[in-house]
Amino acid sequence: MPGAEPTWTIAELADEFGVTHRTIRFYEHQGLISPQRHGSRRIFHPRDRIRLALVLRGKRLGFDLAEIRRIVDMYEQPPGEAGQLRYLIDQITARRAELEQRRHDIEQTLSELAEVERRCRSDLARLADGDTGQE
Amino acid sequence: MPGAEPTWTIAELADEFGVTHRTIRFYEHQGLISPQRHGSRRIFHPRDRIRLALVLRGKRLGFDLAEIRRIVDMYEQPPGEAGQLRYLIDQITARRAELEQRRHDIEQTLSELAEVERRCRSDLARLADGDTGQE
DNA sequence: ACCATGCTTGACGTTTACGTCAACGTCAAG
DNA sequence: CTTGACGTTGACGTAAACGTCAAGCATGGT
Questions:
Q1: How far is B38 from chain A (nearest CA, A)?
Q2: Which of A18, A86, B33, B73 has its CA 20 to 30 Å from the CA of residue B40?
Q3: pTM for this one?
């Protein structure tokens, strides 16, 4: 039945994303994902998988879970009401400002590290000049 | 005496960077900064100020203090010994990889949020079309 | 029938990064 | 000389984000 969407167990997702199932359960407890149940077993659908990936990307960016939830929730189908839509646009504007600040910080750090590395390499070259090149 | 470098008290730095002095003391305890002492009072030199700024930028990027220390320590005058230089270059390479991953995550998130925003705005426009423009 | 394997829910422990007193030192101003 | 203002060192508290048992259910293979 090729039209059916795939599902995953907790172990499969934990394995794929390199987290423990404790972590996934914790994220569910925080309302970040809401897997379906078959009896007591969790069944993860593509939607859950995507949200988990978004959460982990948020973590790589250094956001805390509360802020990650705000971001991830924006990905869901936007609501039809005007006030909600304006609120969502405001949220996006705010998150974008943070992300752009971070990008700026990253670029500055990268260029500074590049400068340090340049000095290191020139120092290394100067040292290599002084000896016969042996190990 | 204009050749002398400026110094700051803990309150001045805390105020300037928007942190508490508890935070600054904690960073000193972690070896991130090492202010000079006058009696028991801390005296902060430009070097300490720079390191504090680097630490806070690292925090904005979501690094934990252990990793921040590794990064900040790279900014100090590189050592003269070849092995140390190579180690430092390796460290820089590793940090750079992380930063570039983060930058990639940020750009992806930014473009996805832009797409959500575009949908929101078009939904809003569609709603505005339907009514008479009143509030 | 039985047992291993995988999943479940608590419940308590841990680490990080500080916050928050409490109690005391010190130094210039009135 | 006393009074703030500012600084100091502990010591304990706390919120976030899980880690780590413990104990139990469910189920598929032998």
A1: 32
A2: B73
A3: 0.87
